[in-house]
């Protein structure tokens, strides 16, 4: 389709990060360990942090160059063994810069074993004017594995007066359980296209965001809506078949993130059985 990202050629950065999490063996206090952190190229991880009593592992994903350009390809793979708890986040917004033609590609796959809980809570993704981006996030749950995850996408830089009249986004978000799809989303937006202005698309707003939570509690949706407060019609929540879906469409990535954090704090006890503890990096 005209205006959408072409496959990245064999140029630019190639970066891969492969993470593995496993519970501490033996009878001592249970803690989730980062047992594998293999990387190539400019994609790395800080040392694990343990701010919670139950030993949940907090990990910050680092991309030292600070921005992504056309032709770059980033891949993150993370696998959680049974009975693990891991929270993954990023230190700042991901920035995709203007491309001369090739797309930047970002692929993220999370595999979560029975009894484990994944939290994927990155800061926002910002597409600069002229960026061409293909991004895929796939979460594969097994058995009773649980997850809380979000993606926040900003077309252009509204605070700097920059729109997204040129460029393209091809975004995939997938959530699976035991090989069956729970949620499949694909957004294809060409800069300056009808999708940016239409009510069925971005509705003239710069930011679109999705939050997913695996939760069976009947009152989870009401709890999420209460946590959102008055959103002036920018947020909507629904729950079906053990999955809560929250969508945001509005002018501000900071507002989307603040709303999502409030919902995460409200839902974490029902999803993961523990109160929310904010990652240290969010305070810096």
TrEMBL record:
Subcellular location: Cytoplasm
GO CC term (a single one): cytoplasm
Domain of life, source organism: Bacteria
Pfam families for this protein: UreD
UniProt keyword terms in alphabetical order: Chaperone, Cytoplasm, Nickel insertion
Primary role: Required for maturation of urease via the functional incorporation of the urease nickel metallocenter.
Family: Belongs to the UreD family.
Subunit structure: UreD, UreF and UreG form a complex that acts as a GTP-hydrolysis-dependent molecular chaperone, activating the urease apoprotein by helping to assemble the nickel containing metallocenter of UreC. The UreE protein probably delivers the nickel.
Record-given protein name: Urease accessory protein UreD
